[in-house]
Design brief:
The structure holds two protein chains of two kinds. Chain A is built from four helices and four strands, in the order αβββαααβ. By secondary structure, chain A is α+β, with helices and mostly antiparallel strands. Chain A has a four-stranded antiparallel sheet, covered by helices on one side. In chain A, β1 and β2 form a beta hairpin. The longest helix of chain A has 14 residues. Chain B contains 13 helices and 15 strands. The radius of gyration of chain B is 22 Å and the shape is globular. By secondary structure, chain B is α/β, with parallel strands linked by helices. Classes of the chains: A alpha+beta, B alpha/beta. The interface between A and B is medium-sized, with 16 and 16 residues.
């Protein structure tokens, strides 16, 4: 049996709410953890006020990383894109709400670290 | 088989340890021998003339002989290192001056990083050409057919593993060996990594016409910090000492060094004397069990586990094995290997996940990682049952079907 917190994470990873691509994306970011093979990519649509209107991720990753990407995407709807570079690892780990070893924390933080390297599309 | 000999299982009754290929748990007699040496006989061997040091010198010499004979070699053929990785690096550094630009080094796609990186680095430093022996993804083995065209007059180093730490498959040595044309190729250095072979079956260095063989002490019930470099005397004699230091020389003058004889010349610095004592005890432990018995028990567990996991629907990394492997690597469809290992670990079942220090292998298979189960002398059918139950529960909780 999984704990309720683990259930949330598994459910998010297996049925992510923010996976896919964004039409007319204005920003993208990609990241990978070479040691475990986790890969994450984000597409964002930012409006004229600098607010994130749409965000989607595509992940080829473990449960923790995929769920992390989905939870992170959900948390960023409507926030200024300028804040993405300063996302708090501590806050995000609390959002995931699971005790994680240092190795699995790397999985959890890959999406966040990826987004800090967000670039505007030409 | 021998769980009662290992105190960790009394301290952690819930522990199902299935990662012996990474490192083995230690029998009480090994732990006790280290402990007792440290408490009552510890000294720096080969240095002092007082009785405590003289005695320690004798113990290390005796331990060296015990370990070497276990592998069909003499004490003078055994260089004691910090680990197998250091042993491989000692060879790579030791032959460096002989490697010229354009020389060729053959390594294998399925090999462990420790038997790749020293040769990759050597090739880069000396301008040598690194050639990769591919593996058959269905059998998980290299073949003589692929090996033969790689061998040329420029081949100076061949470095391979006797047993793959991912596939558990064995090197077809009887087919490869004749290709090496040992006669007349005095400049060819052949190195075999026996880290996964040594703990699971009888192994004798003298059965292999190679220059060097490397074994990992902590993977065969010995303490950490002891690696074994076995070598032909003439091959060891040609190595430039890569770890020069105290204890490796008779005399240092400002313009001249007088090296000690082998193996001391290659063992600079204070040895891990307590580890070496423990290593000899580990050898005695295995001798008492009998390596034929160890191999029989190990093979039975592999066979049983493979049948059970096949029924669960795991995807084996080797789809068409032509032999019983020494360990079991697989993926669970729909569940990342780290998630599998985490789930099992939370339930006391310890398996390895990731690329197992063999990333070229996993890149070739286009896999981010895999799960690996490996057995030791302390494992039994109850451990396999616990593994199967945990994987069954995982499939249920992750909603993946067999």
């Amino acid at each position: 049996m999984l704990t309720p917190e683990q259930e949330v994470v598994v459910e998010r990873a297996q049925q992510p709410r923010f996976s896919g691509t964004v039409t007319n994306a204005t920003h993208t970011a990609t990241g990978a953890n070479m040691s475990c093979g986790d890969e994450v990519a984000f597409e964002l649509r930012v409006d004229e006020h600098g607010l994130i209107q749409e965000i989607k991720h595509s992940s080829r990753a473990c449960t923790i990383c995929t769920a992390s990407a989905d939870l992170l995407a959900e948390s960023l709807i409507g926030t200024p894109v300028s804040e993405v570079a300063y996302l708090s690892a501590h806050t995000h780990l609390e959002r995931i709400a699971l005790p994680l070893s240092p190795i699995r924390q790397k999985c959890a933080l890959l999406p966040l670290e990826t987004l800090t390297r967000l670039t505007a599309k030409e | 088989m021998q769980k009662a000999d290992f105190p960790i299982f009394q301290n952690h009754p819930e522990l199902v340890y299935l990662d012996s290929a990474a490192t083995t748990q230690k029998p009480a007699m090994v732990a006790d021998s280290v402990h007792n040496y440290l408490r009552s006989r510890y000294a720096n061997p080969g240095r002092g003339v007082y009785p405590l040091s003289v005695n320690a010198t004798g113990e290390i010499t005796k331990a060296r002989g015990t370990i070497a004979r276990f592998f069909g070699a003499q004490g003078s053929q055994l260089v004691l290192t910090a680990n197998a990785t250091e042993a491989l690096n000692l060879v790579a550094r030791g032959i460096e001056d002989r490697i010229q630009p354009g020389d060729e080094i053959i390594v294998s796609e399925l090999d462990h990083h420790s038997n790749l990186l020293p040769w990759i680095s050597l090739a880069k430093r000396r301008g040598a050409l690194l050639k990769w022996l591919p593996f058959n993804p269905q059998t998980g083995k290299v073949t003589a057919g692929d090996f033969s065209p790689l061998l040329t007059a420029q081949t100076k180093v061949v470095a391979l593993s006797l047993v793959s730490n991912v596939f558990g498959t064995r090197l077809p040595w009887s087919e490869l060996s004749p290709l090496l044309h040992r006669q007349g190729r005095e400049d060819l250095v052949v190195v075999l990594d026996a880290c996964q072979a040594a703990p699971v079956a009888p192994l004798s260095f003298s059965d292999y016409d190679v220059d060097f063989m490397v074994v990992s002490g902590h993977k065969m019930y010995g303490p950490s910090g002891v690696g074994l470099l076995l070598g032909k005397p003439e091959a060891l004699d040609t190595l430039t000492p890569a770890r020069p230091g105290g204890g490796s020389v008779e005399m240092v003058q400002k313009d001249q060094i007088t090296w000690k004889s082998l193996p001391d010349s290659l063992e600079g610095g204070t040895p891990n004397s307590e580890g070496i004592i423990g290593m000899a005890t580990a050898v005695e432990y295995l001798q008492n069990l009998g390596m034929d018995q160890v191999a029989h028990h190990h093979n039975q567990l592999i066979q049983h586990a493979r049948e059970q996991l096949t029924q669960l629907g795991v995807t084996w990394l080797v789809s068409h094995p032509d032999e019983l492997p020494a360990l079991l690597s697989f993926t669970i469809p729909g569940v990342h290997s780290h998630d599998v290992a985490q789930y099992l670990g939370d339930r006391g079942v310890c398996i390895r996940a990731g690329h197992h220090c063999a990333s070229p292998l996993h890149q070739r298979l286009n896999l981010p990682g895999s799960c690996r189960v490996s057995f030791g002398v302390y494992n039994d059918h109850d451990d396999v049952d616990a593994l199967v139950q945990a994987l069954t529960d995982l499939q249920h909780d992750y909603h993946v079907n067999a």
